[in-house]
Amino acid sequence: MKIQSLRGMHDLLPDQSGTWQYLEKTVADILARYSYREIRFPIVEQTELFKRSVGEATDIVEKEMYTFEDRNGDQLSLRPEGTAGCVRACTQNGLLHNQTQRLWYAGPMFRHERPQKGRQRQFHQIGVEAFGLTGPDIDAELLLLTARLWKTLKIDHVVTLQINSLGTSEDRKIYRAALVEYLTKHHDELDEDSQRRLQTNPMRILDSKNPDVQKVLQQAPSLSDFIDDESRQHFDALCDVLTASNISYEINPKLVRGLDYYSKTVFEWVTSSLGAQGTICAGGRYDGLVEQLGGKPCPGVGFAMGMERLVLLLDELNAVPDSVGQTVDVYIVAVGDTMKESVVLSDTLRSECPNIRIESHCGGGSFKSQIKKADKSGAAIALILGEEEVASATAGVKYLRREQPQETVVQGNLGNLLNTFFTD
């Protein structure tokens, strides 16, 4: 029996990697413009890290984490999200004491949930975190940053920003009690999942997709009636900045996010172009998390964007530039006994033309078959090196993508010709 990949864990094939690289580079370039620096931390962490941060009563910790005991008897988990690991790394390495940090990271996350379009068991995120800043200005910066990204990717017309304020942990504690009291009176009208969450994480019931549950929630207490004045002023100031920056948004009072560490601002960027998996980017403020994980009090705010869903959206909208995935600019055809000379010439040209992608034909074959491969590669130019060209230190230049006659060029002039051609 052939060994195959695990369910929900997919290979990324060469034909797909161009879109991923385009997306990753675009995100990294914009983050650099906002002075965010990259941080990298392990995929495996102590299970306790996620229990204390994400929350023991969340679906992630209860049902979805890949957790195992190592040879030393320690309980370890593959990371289901990035914020907890980032906070742990920053605290452990002294990055947060009397400092502000703007950081980002990228990589795989793992959750054992039902695989479907845009949702896999190994999935990839780019996460962004800012530490040491308490005001709504940094919340606004993150939303302006993401809005700029959508515009750069040409997907801004199909995404919508939803925002809400969760207030403080004390606010939510009081609201949670009021919500439980209300929902308990309607227990029999809730579905099985909501009945379970009523005992463990009642605020997640607000996220229910069941229309019968949403009907019950229409008369439920509203979180906005319970948040304190400071949180309300913070949220109003954030809305003012978004309005002044011409960023459209919707206030969604049922937006609570699925992780316990959020406070005050929470947000999601959603789209209707991907079916049920409509959230492409989400995050919020988590001012108590650093202290909760053993560090000194330090405010934080951040977000994560799902790479698989963004790739799907780019493909759905045909928003990937035609040049993406193109890997060859120049194809060197070696005819006859010219293998040594073609290898030397191709490497010389790679030194003279560092921004040009050059493929040197290997494996022999007829002139006709090599030209076919050159054309299939997508190259704009084929350089032809036969025994006659070797003897005269020249090369044939065949233009594959424009109506221009083939010419013979001295090898010493090829670098200038190629640099000029691909600059114009």
UniProtKB/TrEMBL annotation:
It comes from SAR92 clade bacterium. This is Histidine--tRNA ligase. It comes from the Bacteria. L-histidine binds at E81, G82, T83, R111, Q125, E129, R257, Y261, Y262. The gene is hisS. InterPro entries: aa-tRNA-synth_II, aa-tRNA-synth_II/BPL/LPL, Anticodon-bd, Anticodon-bd_dom_sf, His-tRNA-ligase, HisRS-like_core, HisRS/HisZ, HisRS_anticodon. NCBIfam families: hisS. It is found in: Cytoplasm. Keywords: Aminoacyl-tRNA synthetase, ATP-binding, Cytoplasm, Ligase, Nucleotide-binding, Protein biosynthesis.
